[in-house]
């Protein structure tokens, strides 16, 4: 059925980040709606950020567009231009290659929920604030290419 | 800036439907967020349905995945399996080629708002309830291929 029963879709807080950068996303619980509902052209994540949790480390993709829309609660969008409150109904776009690292942070004392849309690409991802880089086809490494 | 100021993005109720099928979507006002914000990998529409308005004629795409999430108000999702209330936070997926015609109808007395994600493909679109078919590369015609 097209309408999704979110409770039946597995939820995880898994991350591929090395331990020193994983703490920020421990409270990020997400469901991958695309595979669960037969979508193959783009990815859709239903994300809950517990108080204090971040959506990711601040990052930008060389080859992947991203879009988010807030459903409930409140987050702070941090990017190169500063901090921006994201409330239900607020939308943000992150075009590939824009060089503007972004992250959503839940600084409130209650959960916030958003939908994130992307299209998996084999491209590098940059993390301006930390010594980490996603090398396409290789995974997370230090910026000099060495393994964690 | 990644956070979108929706008020600055043009809103339209334009449709390519022939007049006899256009009335249902006269009250469908939408903004194309992708082009306005630099996204090229998928399309994102921010849609307001006035009371009585439909999201489209009931349809399914041969070659385009679609996803919707409700932001405010309430709509009725009509598909082959019946009618389903769509309230804020509710999500629905319409995988390409599923053969399950779908439409959102606002039967309430206030606006409803949703986000629709898709990926423009050159593929046919089927309309099970009416004598219309979208022929890839040709546009809307009657099911026998004749022009309106």
From TrEMBL, chains A, B:
Instruction: Name the InterPro entries on file.
Output: Cupin_2, GPI/OXD, RmlC-like_jellyroll, RmlC_Cupin_sf
Q: The Cupin type-2 domain covers which part of the protein?
A: 46-117
User: Per UniProt, which keywords does this protein have?
Assistant: Metal-binding
Name it.
Cupin domain-containing protein
* SUPFAM superfamilies in alphabetical order: RmlC-like cupins
């Amino acid at each position: 059925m097209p309408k999704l029963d979110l409770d039946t879709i597995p939820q995880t807080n898994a991350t591929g980040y090395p331990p020193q950068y994983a703490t920020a996303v421990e409270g990020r619980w997400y469901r991958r709606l695309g595979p669960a509902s037969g979508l193959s052209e783009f990815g859709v994540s239903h994300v809950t950020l517990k108080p204090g949790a971040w959506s990711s480390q601040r990052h930008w993709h060389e080859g992947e567009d991203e879009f988010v829309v807030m459903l409930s609660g409140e987050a702070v969008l941090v990017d190169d231009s500063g901090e921006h409150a994201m409330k239900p109904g607020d939308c943000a776009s992150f075009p590939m290659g824009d060089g503007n690292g972004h992250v959503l942070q839940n600084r409130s004392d209650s959960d916030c929920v958003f939908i994130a849309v992307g299209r998996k690409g084999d491209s590098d991802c940059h993390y301006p604030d930390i010594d980490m880089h996603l090398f396409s086809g290789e995974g997370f490494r230090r910026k000099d290419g060495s393994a964690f």
